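Input set for joint prediction.
Command: fold jointly, output tokens.
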Amino acid sequence: MPRPRYVFGEAWSIARTSPRQTAAAITLIALALYVPGLLALVSHNLSRLAVEETDPASVVLTLDPQTDPRAIAARLQADTRIRLVRIVSSDAALARFRRAYPDLGAALSDLKEAPFPPSIEVVLKPGAARTASREIAAAARVWPGIESAESEEEFSRRFRDAIHLVRDAGLFLGAVLTLAAVLSVASAVRLALDLHREEVGIMRLMGATESAIRAPFWLYATSEGLVGGGLALGLLYATYRFAANWLSRDPHPVLAVLWVGFLALPTQLLLPAAGAAAGLLGSLLSLGRRQTRRATRLA
Amino acid sequence: MIQLFGVSKRYGTFRDALADISFRVEPGEFVFLTGPSGAGKSTLLRLIFMEETPTAGQIIVNGRNIGVLPQGQIPYLRRTMGVVFQDFKLIARKTIFENIAFVQNVLGLPRVEQKRRAYQVLKRVGLHHLMNAFPDELSGGEQQRVAIARAIVNEPTLLLADEPTGNLDPVLAEEIMRLFVEINIRGTTVVVATHDLEMIRRTGKRTLILERGRLHDPDRLRESAPIVREAPFLPLH
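tokens >
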């Protein structure tokens, strides 16, 4: 096995002799990981809204602020399919939001009035028919003082579907862009190999083993990926900080939800790790035994 | 040291670079390999240092049949050989010391030991003051001496040289040939491919003649051998 000092020295030397290719490969890896990272960040923040509750509401009625919620609640309680009717005032909704998004507390405290309208949450009995929530919502929509009535089951499903869509789009885009990054690294390594064609041939004649010849290229490509992944993480954090700062100055009820918190540490570490894996895969693709021997044969 | 039995090398379907070559080089021997351009000298050397594989026949180097040598063992066998080329083949981005200490570096030999060995061999070729220079800063003769130093730094039992004086003027060529003779006197088997017949005549060593991929009539070689027995070169100190 070649010694680490030799491998690191040679890998650094390869990077120095082809700085443009190295920079291009790093940039492409960074972009390839930034896009899915961004979608992961958005879906991470959206997922908070989909946290399971102990008594999930089946129907949510949004009320006109002038309406007496108790009258509406009494009317609902007459329905035998309903187990529980929960009145959520504007302040209670705000408090709940603060619990879900503690990171936004400072921004919300600046608001002069509560941004959430009062609502009523309806919990159905366990044996209620599947269509019950939709029927109750449809009936309530025509009542006076009701701004909107949504079957929460349907909303929850749509919401979760939306989160899954964002995640899947992230995974798909990530896979496509990572493949592009892998191929880019493979080209960069092949180019570096071509630039070092003669000296690799000389090394071989001097008795260098195949692992001694390839290890610096492996390390070079893996490092490219690692740096690219790190750069993607840095860009992502910069984007997050920028968005969070901007939204703290000019709060937006929907956009703010997307930029509440940054990715968890394991997900953060996934970016450089994915970059390194892409780099290694790219180098393995371009450094097959036959390819190196053909590419470096001396005249 | 080297034995070839009926070795042939064919490129494509029709072109025989070498055909039915058999000879033997004893340990400690100095042998010239000569012939016109395209006779197969370089191909023969490439077969010996395993850059190419023969189409037919067997080659034994240092007692090992290289035809059946596993791929992974080739680097280790190569470390018992030194190779010198006409165009020196030094790595331009490395210093003279780094060029010479490359294999030791790969093997993880302490830097002090690498320097000691590099200094010793560079002193033998008279270039110990240029350890930190780059190949581009050296003349052709100096570069070839560095290439020789690199070839002998592992104390090889066999030294192969492919037209080592082809790019040098006669004075430098003679200087390089002296180095080979001196290395041979110290016990290393030396095989030099050259088409410089004058050099061969003056050196007075055994000569193998290749013509169109075939070894010349061995009887003619034996006849010519006494003529070139004298060795006018004095080894360097």
